[in-house]
Task: inverse folding
């Protein structure tokens, strides 16, 4: 599996579970990837949620995506780990507001709204799990390839 396959997996199954750490306590919550491309895996949240402050305090994250199989196949899992970075690029933020027009009803209603935080995992590593490689889920693959 290469990063292109990783992007396709996320596009097919954009809902994952994102893990952060606050102090020494882990926190996991569902998150939806709204954009995945060669520049990274993109998310957004409100600055009013604890997630935003957790990301600012510790930008190391991991997210897992599960594609269920047809029983008895339990499916596959893609894990992505890396350090997030905040996205200030107004073109990306405009794309978010074009994708989710209901965001125009929140805060200022414009892509420069200070209550919406866009972040991405621009680099890191991923791992692909199947039942066949359950004991040894294969190598962690770095992205982007340098």
Result:
């Amino acid at each position: 599996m290469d990063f292109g396959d990783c992007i396709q997996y996320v596009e097919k199954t954009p809902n994952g579970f994102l893990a952060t750490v606050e102090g020494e306590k882990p926190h996991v919550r569902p998150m939806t990837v709204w954009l995945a491309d060669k520049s990274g895996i993109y998310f957004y949240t409100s600055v009013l949620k604890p997630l935003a402050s957790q990301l600012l305090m510790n930008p190391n994250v991991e997210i897992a995506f599960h594609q269920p199989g047809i029983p008895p196949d339990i499916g596959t899992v893609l894990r992505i780990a890396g350090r997030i970075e905040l996205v200030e690029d107004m073109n990306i933020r405009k794309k978010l507001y074009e994708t989710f027009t209901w965001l125009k009803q929140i805060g200022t209603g414009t892509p420069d709204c200070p209550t919406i935080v866009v972040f991405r995992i621009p680099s890191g590593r991923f791992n692909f799990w199947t039942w066949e490689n359950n004991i040894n889920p294969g190598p962690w693959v770095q992205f982007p390839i340098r």
In short: The CA atoms of residues 62 and 81 lie 4 Å apart.
